[in-house]
Design brief:
It is built from 7 helices and 6 strands. It has helices at residues 19-31, 50-57, 81-92, 106-113, 130-140, 182-203, 212-221, and strands spanning 40-42, 63-66, 96-99, 147-151, 166-170, 210-211. A 6-stranded parallel beta sheet has the order 3-2-4-5-1-6, with helices on both faces. The longest helix has 22 residues, at 182-203.
Length: 232
Amino acid sequence: MEHSGKMVVREQDREGMNPEKFGFGLRVMVRGVLRDHISAYVDSVVDIDPRALTALTGKPVDNLLLDVDGCLAVPEGDILASSLAWVDNLRSRGIHFGVYSNHLSGARLAPLEAVRHIPVYKGTISKPDPRGFLDACRIMGFVPERTWMVGDNPNTDGGGARVLGGFVLVKAIARDKRRLSPWKTVKAPFQDSSRAFAVWRSTYQNPKLITSTTIKAWLSSHGQEDLQHLSA
């Protein structure tokens, strides 16, 4: 296991730095430990189609664990309508969802948790500790081998890559700097640059990666709906 994963005190969010997070991030950025454990790298969540992923990897996709900021929503902003439409579409096809975000704001998660009754992990284990992903699966009734993590940051979301069925990395939605607090304004450039380097280290010249183009080609060849249309 990549690190010891000490329990952390649950606050309003689980975004604070600790030695385990720092050490995992270094291994991702310096050693490239996730290079062979990322299944797909897509432009947007709406490009993710479980049928295509299963066909292209041979791995079942029954459940998706979702990150929020930079993945479903503009960081510190509301979840995008296109993201919710994508969730509704896949739920109608039998895919189960859960939320595993280091941010625990109830108001922002209401469209998923309160309206759609999608479970949100509220345990005390923060990403990237692998035990947190397994704990989320246990609480939500998901089989880890049939569950994929969807997130924009290898340094945090990548902690599930070795214990779940798959990991889909999503190109991060850009921040709206007007929403940032003074402290976030200071932290954001470092967070964004470290994430960008981790993404590059994990995906650069990796021919095994499934991309949005790969998924769209599979859907087209099999006469399936191109989910990108949900964002129109």
